[in-house]
Amino acid sequence: MSGASPVPTPTIPTTPTTPITATTRQFTAATDWTRRHVDAGRLPVAVLGIADASSVLSLEAFGTDDSMHDTTPAGRTAQVNDRFALYSVTKPLVALTAMRVIERGLLTTDTPLQDALPAFAHPQVTLGHLMSHTSGVADVVLGADGSAVTHGRATTLREAIERAPLEYIPGTARRYNNLAWEGVAAMIEHATGLPFEHEFGNFTAAVGATGLSFDTDDVHAVHGGERYDHDPAALFPLRHPAAGAAASAADLLAIGQSLLSGDGAVIAPGTIEAMARPRTSGLYMIDPDPMKRFEDFGLGWNLPRRPGLLDHSIYGHSGWSNTQLWVSPAAGLCVVMLTNRLDAGEPDVGVNLDELLNAVFSGR
What we know:
The protein has helices at 28-39, 90-103, 113-116, 127-131, 157-162, 180-192, 196-207, 232-235, 249-261, 269-275, 353-361, and strands at 20-23, 46-51, 56-62, 64-65, 76-77, 83-85, 173-174, 246-248, 284-285, 295-297, 302-304, 315-318, 324-328, 333-338. It is an alpha+beta fold and 364 residues long.
């Protein structure tokens, strides 16, 4: 989810970290990287998990979150089983839910959104467009109270997408989009006849990710929202299918392990390949960040090919709060980092996630 131009923000105070560890293999460079950023105050707290197809290789928690928010008690020490708000890491998880419906023969990526939402005025927009940021659907700005404030005075996400205009012809350009995922949820509901979160729960149960849900009461406080005029407490009640889920590291590692092993618990191996197939190569990119030209999107997955990355086989997603879920078929590893600072990647804060991914997927 995008924000306004950055303004200086104070460093979040931390205490030196004593990691809480469950480790069977050393990833010294990766754990040192995480500890260094937490100790320096660039990340409030963090949980770092690394797994291969058969086991969790490293799982550590770092830091004590001395919250700047009056409503959250200070001094919450991170534990490896803590849940964090995922923000946009939610997107590929919702995509996996949709692909499970496709595997049951109830949808295809070419199914029009209009089948689920007859009031939506653009029959050419498909499920595949919605999951690859190529739909052309105009996004919405969320007001301070969390309500949608564009598209015919819509007051809910469902109303907003029903009334949304198009910014470009679907499939001809790429623009990162949050509202589109409400369309994905609507298509899941229409195809199955069940609430979206029921199908999402079936997905999480299939892989044993019991802490993954849209309930956010126990997550770590999110820092940095004032920089973007963003209130997490306004977002969370929306249970937004683009950015509203929460999970522990173990939940996401379980998903990554299933994808690496191809065991079919989440989706079949052929479906994994279909999701990681680039769908935006060569399309005009609408994004102010020039580094985004080194990324493609598949179905839900971000496919980064930045020059600073050593491993160009990876697929996954980042969240606005700098949560991370990445899978490397080449290395046979997946990595999860859960943390809680929205502006950690800004130049004046200086967290470069490519450094972590290089360390993890080279086994350091």
